[in-house]
Amino acid sequence: MLELKNVTTEIAGTTILRDVSFSVTKGSMVGLIGRNGAGKTTSLRSIMGLLKPKSGQVIINGTDMTKQGSFERAGMSIGYMPEDRRLVPDLTVEENIMAPAWACKLNNAEARLAWIYEMMPEVEAFSDRRALQLSGGQQKLVALARAMMTGTHLLLLDEPFEGVAPALSRRLVSVLSTLKDEGLTVLLSESDQSHSADLVDKAFQIERGSVEPLASLT
């Protein structure tokens, strides 16, 4: 489903990713583990096309997407949850969730929304509130719901548990476990394995922009 081959990415002339290679097989959940500044966000942004790699390849579902624009990913049924959520503050929760469906002109948007609300009924409960009225944890749930709208094949989740209260963290784990059971392919980043160890099928360690398989999930 996803493969990075020798990806090197620079930001403002500084090398952030160094010859990164790893793959995520279809239907699996994979962790990208590393401390802040290690390159997790740059990895996901490179996959999404928000940053253009200096060299290497980003292959998604067998297609080389390295030079393609970020908007092309949504058309490939990929959903992205950024670390900082990036909700539109003056839009309602439901409008934020539906925004990618409107942009991509999805034919099954209402059915997707119903599925999301069934998965996360608490989000439906505050669906008419504006995003700026939500707590940080609630915003994380909405950002995940928005990613799920287009991410029917692949979900990229950047630090989904960061800054979230324990109760909401457990709720996120429950939702991700259900998504895994439904066969979605998921790549998630985390600073440590405190939340993802029981979820992921395998994990990679990223340190100073270099990636290696993580020897243990315990």
From TrEMBL:
Ranges for domain ABC transporter: 2-218
Keywords: Amino-acid transport, ATP-binding, Nucleotide-binding, Transport
Signal peptide location: none
Pfam family, one: ABC_tran
InterPro entries, A to Z: AAA+_ATPase, ABC_transporter-like_ATP-bd, ABC_transporter-like_CS, BCAA_Transport_ATP-bd_LivF, P-loop_NTPase
A GO term for molecular function: ATP hydrolysis activity
Any one GO biological process: L-amino acid transport
Keyword field contains DNA damage: no
SUPFAM superfamilies per record: P-loop containing nucleoside triphosphate hydrolases
PANTHER family: ABC TRANSPORTER ATP-BINDING PROTEIN, HIGH-AFFINITY BRANCHED-CHAIN AMINO ACID TRANSPORT ATP-BINDING PROTEIN LIVF
Family, per entry: Belongs to the ABC transporter superfamily.
Full protein name: ABC transporter ATP-binding protein
